[in-house]
Amino acid sequence: MIKSYDFIYRRLLEYYGPQGWWPADSDFKMMIGSILVQNTNWKNAEKALENLKHYLQPEVMHQLAEEKLAHLIRPSGYYNMKAKKIKAFLYWYKKYDYRLSLLKFREKNELRKELLNIYGIGNETADVILLYAMEKPVFIADNYARRIFRRLGYNVPHGYDRFREMVERALPEETSLFNEYHALLVAHGKTHCKAAPICEGCPLLDVCEQRF
């Protein structure tokens, strides 16, 4: 059976339906959430975002003392480090007058380099921000994607960027597709393709090589 990236996407979409990601009601909240969710789950990140609800404007959060910010985001874990990361991100964002519109028209690779130069912004966080806030077509090569494609039989490269580029070359350069694909892979990784997989009822079982 054909196991193209497009085939997998369509099979997952048929099974799970549209996911409507990212799970935040503003672009700024999404970007802050992408830092808060590092090394934790979205439930804990949401608790931290709830504590920040009166400060979810970039100008306001930038004025917030780092110590207070750390206290508010405590539910997300690693809160002192994450407070520094958020402050570093806000310092960069201020250079663009906190205007996402100025960033959306920038070239994708240039933006990615800038994001990766910010303290605490790694490959996955940078790509999440590029995809969900700046609307750039980027494949998020996270652990869910790596696990799923490896089990399906793909020879997944070790490096993050090599894996990302491999998938991007195989798919149309459409932001909406990458947006939905990432959300579907996360849904599948949480539902069936867990570290200890639940293969019964899996929508990809008939094409899976079950490489554990």
Q: How would you portray this structure in words?
A:
The structure is a single chain. The protein is mainly alpha-helical and 212 residues long. It has two domains: 5-20 and 139-207, Endonuclease Iii, domain 2 (Orthogonal Bundle); 27-132, Hypothetical protein, domain 2 (Endonuclease III, domain 1, Orthogonal Bundle). It is 58% helix and 0% strand. It is built from twelve helices and no strands. It has helices spanning 5-16, 27-36, 42-51, 58-63, 66-72, 79-94, 100-104, 108-116, 123-132, 143-152, 160-170, 175-191. The mean pLDDT is 95.
Map the helices and strands:
Blueprint: H1 5-16, H2 27-36, H3 42-51, H4 58-63, H5 66-72, H6 79-94, H7 100-104, H8 108-116, H9 123-132, H10 143-152, H11 160-170, H12 175-191
Brief summary:
By secondary structure, the chain is mainly alpha-helical. The protein has twelve helices and no strands.
Which terms would index this structure?
Endonuclease Iii, domain 2, 2 domains, Endonuclease III, domain 1, single chain, mainly alpha
Order of helices and strands: HHHHHHHHHHHH
Q: What CATH architecture of the largest domain do you see?
A: Orthogonal Bundle
Number of domains: 2
Distance between the termini: 20 Å
Overall 3D geometry?
Answer: globular
CATH fold category name of the largest domain:
Endonuclease III, domain 1
Rg (CA only): 18 Å
Unreliably modeled segments: none
Q: Largest sheet, if any?
A: none
Kindly name the structural category. mainly alpha
Number of strands: 0
* Proportion of residues in helical segments: 55-70%
Beta-strand percentage range:
under 5%
CATH class of the largest domain: Mainly Alpha
Please name the fourth-level CATH homologous superfamily of the largest domain: Hypothetical protein, domain 2
Number of helices: 12
Mean pLDDT, to the nearest integer, reads: 95
